[in-house]
Specification:
With 283 residues, this protein is of the alpha/beta class. Helices cover 28% and strands 14% of the residues. It is built from ten helices and twelve strands. Strand 2, helix 2 and strand 3 form a beta-alpha-beta unit.
Length: 283
């Protein structure tokens, strides 16, 4: 069994499949450059009893920003339709091991679910263990989800501007180092390259080995080398709020409970003309 308070192994999960009060959520989501398609992959093979959480649809559809947090009522309706209750033990996974699942882990918790885990190594670990898959679309009976947004866990644009201007907060950016330094273009049209003044680069890929979260000692070293004190408050960001949650999860593994996520992330910050941008390495 993993010693991480929010991780569960495939072998530990398997005996509980089908148990009342357990919900399994496939949170797979991919960047266009990855050329993978989450829903067809889910229907081709998923953990038995899992439901598919569409991160592009369970979002604020009135926003011009991609997959930002929806209203409490919308989240409750859509997640409840998947048969997931806020009182369940919820296990989340994705098709890469540790990429998009932390975002749904974070969303469920920020909307009030108390017991949410990640499958260590994601779907690849389940397959590697020789465990069975199920095919077809999600099959679930609707269930009540009492959604209550913890606004203190989220940073919105006005506060983020104050945080950057103040210069006293730690900001960790999960995008690639090339995008952080503006050496690679942003994938969304009209979004400048670079990073927020004071931000530090913590690419999501640096957090893992073989699709699994690194151990505590390695994570502490990684954050320290990036200029982040993992015991102090941190605000996380990325391209659009998905992979930022991987940093939240990694810091939770180090028992840091004062980590917030900037939901608009770089898509919002980099597309405005009233937000400062730096290029090159972190200063």
């Amino acid at each position: 069994m993993s010693d991480h308070p929010f991780l569960i192994t495939a072998r530990d999960l398997e005996p509980h499949i089908g148990r009342d009060g357990l919900s399994i959520v496939d949170a797979s989501w991919y960047l266009p450059a990855q050329k993978r398609f989450a829903r067809p992959e889910f229907e081709a093979g998923h953990i038995p009893g899992a439901v598919f959480f569409d991160q592009d649809e369970i979002a604020d559809k009135s926003s011009q920003l991609p997959h930002t947090l929806p209203s409490e009522a919308f989240f409750a309706e859509r997640v409840g339709a998947l048969g997931v209750r806020d009182t369940d033990t919820i296990v989340v996974y994705d098709g890469m091991g540790f990429f998009s699942a932390p975002r749904v882990w974070w969303m469920l918790r920020v909307f009030g679910a108390k017991d949410v885990r990640l499958l260590d190594g994601g779907l690849p670990s389940w397959i590697e263990a020789g465990l069975p898959l199920e095919t077809g679309p999600s099959r679930a009976s609707p269930a009540p989800f009492d959604a209550r947004l913890d606004r203190e866990a989220v940073v919105f644009i006005d506060e983020m501007k104050d945080i950057v201007a103040g210069g006293a907060h730690q900001i960790a950016d999960a995008r690639s180092g090339e995008r952080f330094r503006a050496e690679a273009p942003e994938p969304r049209e009209g979004v400048r390259g670079g990073h927020m003044p004071g931000a530090r680069s913590v690419p999501i890929g640096s957090l893992t080995d073989g699709g699994r979260l690194k151990d505590a000692e390695a994570l502490r070293t990684l954050f320290s080398n990036a200029g982040i004190d993992p015991e102090q408050p941190v605000v996380t960001s990325c391209g659009s709020g998905v992979t930022a949650a991987a940093i939240n999860f990694a810091l939770a593994s180090l028992h840091n409970r004062n980590v917030r996520l900037y939901d608009g992330s770089w898509t919002e910050w980099g597309s405005r003309d009233d937000t400062p941008v730096e290029t090159g390495p972190a200063r």
